[in-house]
């Protein structure tokens, strides 16, 4: 297929297998999914907004972090790879710690499930936001830049006790469907965020002051919510 002229050659691989995936997915759609209740639920839209906002920061860091370390802080290629992975290793460790702590507190009835979700998204939203604002002032201090980036990405690990559990809270029987729906919207920042960052920096990354220039205030929507989903009549 790559050597053919069909759909432009190598892009045809993505078109063909992507189309097959869409066709195959039809057979897995539950016939009794309460789509009307889902689309009209304010709680579902609240989760969509949280998912979208969180992913904006996540994808900005994911796509721009290696460039920042290379072009702004001038780390060499081998160091860049290790340092780019370090914040995500910290995120993994912190996600385990935060989840275990929240589980312990809920078992002791110290905190409610609702407040666990609120706290998780507050940590995963406000701490990275403040850390990225702080990136504006690190200048050429490479050590400080790495520390702040580790804090920004590491705090994102709290989300695993936040919106990622909200789908089960809202409708356990349709959690997978809800996750697919919210993630469809939340993947949009994956291609919009790099474009916005490029527009803000005029695609001249060597003059970019910091990653914070491309990150909007995405404080999570921490309103209360509950399950209001029910099968359509």
From TrEMBL:
Region (Disordered): 213-233
Predominant cellular place of this UniProt entry's protein: membrane
Compartments where located: Membrane
Gene Ontology CC annotations of this record: membrane
Presence of keyword Repressor: no
Keywords attached to this entry: Membrane, Symport, Transmembrane, Transmembrane helix, Transport
Membrane topology: Multi-pass membrane protein
Keyword NAD in record: no
TM regions (residue ranges): 12-31, 43-62, 82-98, 119-138, 144-165
GO MF term set: symporter activity
GO terms for biological process, alphabetical: monoatomic anion transport
Protein name: Major facilitator superfamily (MFS) profile domain-containing protein
Organism: Hyalella azteca (Amphipod)
């Amino acid at each position: 297929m790559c050597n053919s002229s069909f759909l432009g050659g190598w892009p045809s691989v993505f078109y063909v297998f992507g189309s097959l995936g869409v066709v195959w997915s039809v057979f897995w759609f539950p016939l009794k999914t309460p789509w009307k209740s889902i689309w009209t639920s304010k709680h579902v839209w609240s989760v969509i907004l949280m998912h979208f906002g969180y992913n904006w920061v996540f994808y900005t860091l994911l796509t721009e972090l290696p460039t920042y370390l290379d072009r702004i802080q001038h780390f060499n290629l081998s160091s860049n790879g290790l340092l780019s992975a370090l914040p995500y290793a910290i995120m993994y460790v912190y996600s385990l710690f935060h989840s275990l702590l929240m589980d312990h507190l809920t078992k002791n009835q110290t905190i409610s499930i609702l407040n666990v979700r609120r706290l998780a998204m507050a940590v995963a939203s406000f701490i990275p936001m403040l850390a990225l604002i702080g990136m504006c002032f690190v200048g050429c201090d490479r050590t400080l830049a790495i520390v702040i980036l580790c804090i920004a990405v590491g705090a994102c690990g709290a989300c695993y006790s936040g919106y990622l559990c909200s789908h089960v809270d809202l409708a356990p029987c349709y959690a997978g469907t809800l996750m697919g729906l919210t993630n469809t919207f939340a993947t949009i920042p994956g291609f919009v965020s790099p474009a916005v960052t490029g527009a803000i920096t005029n695609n001249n990354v060597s003059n970019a002051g910091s990653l914070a220039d491309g990150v909007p205030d995405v404080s999570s929507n921490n309103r209360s919510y509950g399950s209001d989903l029910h099968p359509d009549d």
